[in-house]
Design brief:
Blueprint (H helix, E strand, L loop, with lengths): L13 H18 L8 H4 L23 H8 L10 E3 L6 H9 L3 E5 L2 H10 L5 H17 L8 H4 L5 H15 L4 H17 L23 H13 L4 H16 L10 E5 L17 E6 L9 H11 L5 H9 L21 H11 L3 H24 E12 L1 E3 L2 E3 L1 H11 L3 E9 L19 E8 L1
Parallel strand pairs: 1-2, 1-4, 2-3, 4-5
Antiparallel strand pairs: 5-9, 6-7, 8-9
Helix pairs in contact: 3-4, 5-9, 6-8, 6-9, 6-11, 8-9, 9-11, 9-12, 12-13, 14-15, 15-16
Length: 457
């Protein structure tokens, strides 16, 4: 079992961060539009620990490199003491965890309820004593339940042995009975982690794919490995495994003890609606925004989360479809939705999209929709920043029907529309390729680099 550490995660020194930032600014103005490469991992190795705070509490697709928000929060010119931080596409909470480490209040938004659950849990200190007491009660209650209601049974029975599915349902009911909302969410995150571990999904693949040993020859090593795993899954003590997984989760949350408790708020909300009157963030209240929006057609956030969403009963089949339809960067549209050409108002983008429409109208519509929806998100982002506030954007470029599509430049143009000026632009290599797969010649290519652009209002 993991042991909680009493030492707080190391912060990047503010003086050193400021020095690096000014060096980057000087080089950026010297080089102009030439891409300037920066290796944030090498610059700030103190952030690289695999057990830093709660970052590794639960897997989530295409997490932002933690060095970028850690560095941004350490630069006094971007985030002074007490600066309020926003991540409107927070995912599982990388920016929020680093804000907690830095001692800054922060707000996170995401449309995926699994993402917001994980972001909240990862940035909320919880008493280990209360968590362990609740764990004991949940396991005891789950063992007594005889015929639990199994949500989304038709979908989940494809992914779980019947006995495993029943045990997960017992645990879900018992967890929902926990009165303390912070402890309850911690237990839900642990149950989500367990659900994937005890499923029939191939653990090597982020988007769930069922284990099928018969796809390989009898003497193939993967056939033997998959067969062994399927046999093991049929003999699991799910409640015992939940206890073990939760103890590790509690130990990881224990790493937050001793950090200055600044308020971290997480909302299941749409970044495209930030400019609305009822948005959870008031205008001109944010000092620093650090975010990595979904990539254009390269990620499958909802599909990668689907097994967890169904197992926790966070969505049903209808809700999953609605959630997919609300996701920025989605790939699925009805034929009638892309029958007519649309434009983005960005000349270079529209020229590339029109060219791709001749060969693949669906991909053309995907790109158009992405930029139009990001324009809506940037409208809210710009108004939530205080005058003089900074916006750190992390974005990757794509290919559209085998033609380079400089998404980061187009997003930069959208920011300029809202009166934000570019202060710095650098490029960092992506070492992890999670979910960045090329499916066919018309799909998005693997993204090899991320562009980090700093805007100022």
């Amino acid at each position: 079992m993991l042991a909680p550490t009493s030492s707080a995660p190391v912060r990047i020194d503010a003086g050193r961060a400021s020095e690096v930032y000014h060096q980057l600014l000087a080089k950026f103005h010297e080089q102009g539009d030439d891409p300037m490469t920066v290796d944030f991992r090498s610059l700030f190795p103190e952030v690289a620990s695999t057990e830093r705070a709660t970052h590794n509490l639960h897997p989530y697709p295409a997490k932002m490199l933690r060095h970028i928000p850690s560095f941004s929060l350490a630069v006094p010119e971007l985030a002074g003491p007490g600066a309020r931080v926003l991540d409107p596409f927070c995912g599982s909470g990388t920016t929020l965890v680093e804000a907690l480490v830095a001692g800054n209040p922060a707000v996170g938004l995401d449309v995926n309820p699994l993402a917001t659950l994980l972001a909240k849990v990862k940035s909320t200190p919880v008493s280990p004593r209360r968590a362990h007491a609740a764990l004991a009660s949940v396991v005891a209650m789950a063992r007594q339940l005889r015929r639990p209601r199994v949500p989304n049974r038709d979908r989940l029975r494809y992914w779980f042995h019947p006995r495993v599915l029943t045990d997960l349902a017992r645990l879900r009911i018992a967890v929902e009975d926990v009165g303390d909302p912070d402890v309850r969410d911690l237990l839900k995150a642990s149950l989500s982690l367990l659900a994937r571990q005890v499923s029939l999904a191939d653990p090597r693949v982020s988007v769930p794919v069922r284990l099928r040993p018969e796809r390989y020859p009898e003497d193939h090593r993967l056939r033997a490995a998959m067969s062994r795993r399927l046999a093991q899954l049929g003999r699991l003590d799910v409640l015992l495994d939940f206890e073990r997984a939760t103890r590790e989760t509690i130990a990881r949350i224990g790493r937050l003890e001793g950090l200055r408790a600044e308020p971290i708020a997480v909302y299941c909300a749409d970044a495209r609606e930030l400019a609305a009157a009822d948005a959870p963030v008031e205008p001109a209240t944010i000092d620093l925004i650090v975010t990595s929006p979904p990539y254009l057609g390269a990620q499958k956030y909802i599909r990668a989360s689907s097994l967890n969403l169904f197992a926790l009963d966070l969505v049903d089949a209808e809700g999953a479809g609605e959630l997919l339809g609300r996701s920025v960067g989605r790939e699925f549209f009805r034929r009638d939705e892309y029958a007519e050409a649309q434009t983005t108002g960005i000349h270079e983008a529209d020229a590339l999209i029109e060219e791709s429409r001749c060969t693949n109208p669906l991909r053309a519509h995907l790109a158009t929709t992405y930029l139009r929806e990001m324009r809506s998100a940037f409208a809210g982002i710009a108004t939530r920043l205080k005058p003089g506030g900074a916006f750190v954007l992390v974005a990757g470029d794509n290919q559209l029907c085998d033609v380079p599509f400089p998404t980061s430049r187009f997003l930069e143009a959208l920011a300029h529309e809202r009166g934000l000026r570019t202060e710095l632009r650098v490029v960092d290599a992506i070492r992890s390729r999670g979910l960045m797969t090329r499916r066919n010649h018309s799909s998005a290519s693997p993204i090899a680099h991320e562009h980090v652009v700093v805007f100022r209002r």
